């Protein structure tokens, strides 16, 4: 297994590495904005991953413990990640591509580069004004039931998984089309397996509902657990085994509050983009249905017009204009009819 390991030996080296990484990130963002199509995100990701400042793979050095100075430890195959993002981005609309870029750039990279380091000293630098054994641990568990980092990591996993539904559905269509083509001598079951029609349209819409619901649910969980999105400097705790009400202090509360608000706002924007994409898909589908209905009405009118056209038109001699005041003489009987 390949471990991504980037230890920072001193503050100077760490600052230089982060500066180069952020510069590569900026270049990747510019390339993505300049080439906003289905291949832009994987290409930008390749530029970012191939940058000299990005942490390198290492199969010999084991990953350091959390909070020991490395800003990113991961066991994953980046080529597989790039292929996955390419597949998801290929079948997305414009709103979906913007959503994917926001998740990757403004949430995943911020989570990896900065947020983990901010919360790395969360337990170590949590101090309470007591020496009672166990009091600090109990108060820490009460104030931080779940770490922000672990909650955000779980949120990112849940939010990105629904996109795999679309990719899996497209792969299923492609396999069915291959089998159908092999059995029916070159004819295809689907004109375009990636076209959002029929069941794939519902799968895509359902994935958007799941993504927006997961983001909203995690925002509510974070708000419910911590009674808001604020990070107080001082917290009071009176749980056992604390002898009395003690004061507990959180390290870097302002910085943690800023990152919390940033992640909350990013999640809210992603929810908004998912809702916009749902409205876009439903509106486009309704527009297509109305267009088909109008076309059917036009064809029905044309068919009726063609039926009436089969009746031969009357000539001008058949139209006799009569004077309403004139009297019509009785018909003259033939000589054979008279007795």
TrEMBL record:
Q: Which residues form the Connexin N-terminal domain?
A: 117-150
Q: Which InterPro entries match?
A: Connexin, Connexin_CCC, Connexin_CS, Connexin_N, Connexin_N_sf
Limits of the Connexin cysteine-rich domain = 214-281
What GO cellular component term, any one, is given?
connexin complex
Q: Which domain of life is it from?
A: Eukaryota
Q: Coiled-coil stretches, from where to where?
A: none
Topology of this chain in the membrane: Multi-pass membrane protein
Its localization reads: Cell junction, Gap junction; Cell membrane
Q: Which GO terms of the molecular function aspect are on file? A: gap junction channel activity
**Transmembrane annotation, as ranges:** 15-33, 98-119, 151-170, 201-226, 258-283
Protein keywords? Cell junction, Cell membrane, Gap junction, Membrane, Transmembrane, Transmembrane helix
Concerning its family, UniProt says: Belongs to the connexin family.
Functional note: One gap junction consists of a cluster of closely packed pairs of transmembrane channels, the connexons, through which materials of low MW diffuse from one cell to a neighboring cell.
Kindly state the subunit structure of this protein.
A connexon is composed of a hexamer of connexins.
Q: What is this protein called?
A: Gap junction protein
Q: Which organism is it from?
A: Albula goreensis
Upper lineage: Eukaryota, Metazoa, Chordata, Craniata, Vertebrata
